[in-house]
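INFO  loader      accepted 1 record
INFO  loader      residues=272
INFO  predictor   begin
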Amino acid sequence: MIKIAQHLVNNTFFINTPFSEVQEMILKALLEEEKVYAYDSQKQLMFELLLREKIIEAAKLLAHSKAKFTIFQFSRCNERFWQRNHLGGFELKEGVLPSAGINDIFENSHLYAFECATAIVIVFYKAVLEVLPETTFNELFANLLLYDWHYDKDLGVKTTNGDDYIPGDCLYFKNPEVNPETPQWQGENAIYFGKGLYYGHGIGIRTKEVMIEILNTKRRKNATKSAYLLKQTTRVGFKYLSTFAPQREQVRIFLNPAHLVIGKIGSATFLY
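INFO  predictor   done
INFO  writer      dumping tokens
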């Protein structure tokens, strides 16, 4: 369900809005979810639809790139833009713009190798770069460090419990009986594309069943517990980031007042 400015709305109120096919899929998922997704304004909702779409696009770009999967010990990067530290993370070199560093990962992907958590953070940064002005991105994310789940506070990443999976979310496939000799396969961070598809760095774009099947091949001997999709979601700070979106690039939602009926049950307000 979607609530805008304290009013629950449905898809009949979204007219004359040029949604892309992916945005329509995301909107449908939000509307059909039992949980209420509340927004202070139409701007916030439209920004989230756009950013979720760009997260999916960035994940597809990384999936089809030449960037490799590896553990921190063997990670590598383009040394023109990044300095690899002793932990295997990538520190942005002095004088390099954050936007240039992120874009290079996709432009010269053959020079990079990292594990799945770092891949997700890279996808998030790339998506935000696509929706915010470059100067704003560089101001928000100066001195980038790419390492595991380390990220700039302005990215607003938050993990919560629940199975309200929306396209553009990062989900986690847990492998409870992983082979101790390959601990990197204890789980897989994956971007949910919708329509039953997920992207995990090192596994690729797969269905839920194939993700689990592949992780199950990485279990210890005589394991009995299957890998599974954890009931949690990891998301960027959509509402906070929307405050940096330029007004001229925001798409409006038009509500049809001619068909609007407002009803109240207790303290709840409903639109019909």
